[in-house]
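Quick one: structure for this chain?
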Amino acid sequence: KKSSGINAEYGGELVLLCEPIVVFGTSPTATSALVQALVSLVAPLRFANDYRPYFTIHDSEFQEFTSKTHTPSRVIIGVTNPYFNKALQHWPNVIILDTDPDKTLRVLNPKEHSSSSLRGKPGFYTRHKPYLTKDKQLKKLLRGDRQRPAEVEDILVRRYLTDLTHTLMIPLEQYISSLMPLQRTINPFRQPPLLQQFQHDAFIGTLTDAALKINTELKGLKGNWKELYRKFLRSPNFELWFKNKRLEANQRLELLHIQQLCDADIYSWKLNKHEVEIVDMLLWIRDRYDALGALGTHPQLQSHLKNHIDTLLGVVPTDLQSTLKPAFNL
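Got it. Here's what it folds into:
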């Protein structure tokens, strides 16, 4: 299913914010293709929520997804069974496919949706009000060459949406960078520091009009960016993205910490140290050696840590050496 057939203004925001969407079609092939296309709208972000390209009454979540006693699950599903037209009538975002796959789906009022059959007017029925205004750049892109093949237009729209997602993430990337502890605060003889806590209000406070203008004006976008970010910060897509960013940041800090330990003057440190302090340091370096193994292949750093261990083993009493050496046979 081509991306240009989806209203990017509405579809992109709904998928970004992990809002529930149901796609009605006459064949599993059609619904599956569009569900996959919707999920791809947030690339290069990975869609964090569940999605079912072809959902049936036999799926285990049937009761959960059709229940009207609670808010619809934040999933994207494709269905063909006419029963779902009534069973999913309470879902806030409904797409009814056209038999012509090349037609762009119009955004329509949910009240226009016929719940009696799949013969309802094809369109994108939603109560969602976009936080961003219509993008002149995208409209110009879609109104460009009328003779342009659908496949080419699809590539252009996907490239545009990927670029838009990158633009959205720029302020978040900048804020994450500000949460990184300074390298000079890293002490090789203490636990490595961690990325500071992400404060939603503090991040929103960084979104000055000037900063937003720099990041968005080139895209021809205007609108309530702060509210869009507030909603995005409460979405599973943000949670997954930040989880991966935090892991990457903490691994980077741990590697910097190990590098500083490798550069430390262990020979001078061991002078006038008690035996118990040296054993504690040996255990600490062994712990850092094991941690390094989870950070990729770093033979030079491993060699430095082994040298530190050999240096410290050389100053403990001989009887203690025979006890410790098997544990430090790296």
